[in-house]
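Usage

Read records sequentially. Each one opens with the input sequence:
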Amino acid sequence: MISFDERAKDWDSDPAKVERARVVAEAIRAAVPLQPDMTALEYGCGTGLLSFALRPEFSSITLADTSQGMLDVLSEKISAAGVTNMHPLRLDFSIDPPPASRFGIICSLMTLHHISNIDLVLRNFFAALEPHGVLCISDLDAEDGSFHGAHVADVHHGFERRVLQRQVEAAGFRGVKFSTVHEVKRRVDGIDKGFPLFLMTAEKQS
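and closes with the structure output:
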């Protein structure tokens, strides 16, 4: 599988990825009462498609990823756009502690299924949020493994919503809600196939 560092330069050239980020951004706006003084963290930001779509809503967005290639492309985009409220950060919540800052909202798009230790990362999300902060995760519903294909072994095949809800609640979150917000279309063995995406929201109530 080509690494995310290698894919970074061409990431934004895929209209489906751009549209997916736009649709999820609209779903977040509809689900969460966003405020202009809020600070945000996007985890697994890639080239920042979701955060660019949400940028006007926040005073500051920290964009975190483990791929330096993605962060390099993101930094170029921020500089070219003259944006001042977006801040790239190399961060891996599987091994790194939460940053000193606390955030009003944490967003993640198509990242969770790449994370092996989900429980640890959810606990770090909880620690990184302000009291009454909101977690917004958009990812794949449970699928048969054909989304990535048999050549990719180190990913989750989407998520059963009830199972993920229990994990999120075990990390301390409450008020977990799910909605279907998008469908990714892929051609699998010569057949067009749709993969639903959910948006999950949850609150840190203390």
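Summary fields computed downstream for this record:
- The longest helix spans residues 15-31.
- Residues 44 and 165 are 20 Å apart (CA to CA).
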